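FW: tagging you since you asked about this chain on Friday. Here's the raw sequence from the shared folder, copied in full. Didn't touch anything.
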Amino acid sequence: MAGELPAKHIVIGSQQLKQLQKNVWSDRYVQAVMTAGGNKANIQIRYRGGHTREYPKRSYEVIRGGKTYHYNAEYDDPSLIRNALSFRFFNWIGVPGPATKHCLLFVNGVCLGVYLEIEGVDRSFFRKRGISVQSLFYAVNDHANFDLLKPGSKRRKAELFSGYQQIMGNPADRRKLKRFIHRLNTTKGAHELKAYLYRRIDIDNYLRWLAGAVLTGNYDGFEQNYAIYRHRAAQKYRMIPWDYEGTWGRNCYGKPCGSDLVRITGYNRLTRKLLQYAEVRRKYKRLLVKLLQTEFTVSRILPAAESMHNQIKPYMKWEPVRKWPIHVFDGEMQFIRKYIEERRTLVTEAIKEL
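HL: got it, structure written out here
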């Protein structure tokens, strides 16, 4: 049928499965085989995620053909589309987001339900997009707040790299990121800091990433849940979104959180430093106004959301475990529409004070 979900079949040997299940918090991979679309491939697989590893429906990370893929259970999200819709939106506004597609996941012949396959942000991600990259870091917890201090504290961090995981690059690249965070916080004089930030940050990319997090309402997306990379040719840092399940009016546990949860100036030190400059604020304001006229509209977003929702709907009966009743899933398109309408009004008013 049109829009049929692809099936991914994973076969894990008994000893490998026992090793995988022995400790859900282990990041060690085990060997397995995946069959998809008639093609069979050897893979490495492990569990992924934070608190979600203890859920009855768990998420997986798979390395296949040298590329990384995430199979997200989307257990907290009653729509199962928030990550996919958010990354689609980021691509619309000029920030590269991971490619996604929904699928049915089977392990040893047992259907685990509808999953979201998410492209890993790794070397192949950049090669596919023709982006020249020197280093890449994941912001894995809220210590990645671009500050010298611990979140919500007046105590200095013991290590400026706290909050990050290096994925690409060498020790010198790690030192460069630490030096950037240090200079961001210690450079004296507004003019000197502005010149430094313009040399080290791709301002256009950063503001588009900020606008994406603000408009989709990702409260957890400013001090963590992003990737930052250094562009080899420009020698400037750029941002990539990651983990956008808590968006479009719901938090990361799926609970309604209101359309006014996220202020339009976001929540990290780097954003505060950048927006102290009038020309950056004007640029950001123009960008928000443009996005409210073009991409962040019901007419642009809802058809994409409905297409994903309609593709998944026939397969919800395959869900062996479900956090939310089916009537909540059925009402999600109206929920997301309401969020967009309310968020547009709130952002339009907040722009006037920017």
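FW: The CA atoms of residues 5 and 271 lie 40 Å apart.
HL: agreed, and Residues 7-78+97-119 form one domain.
FW: great, closing this out.
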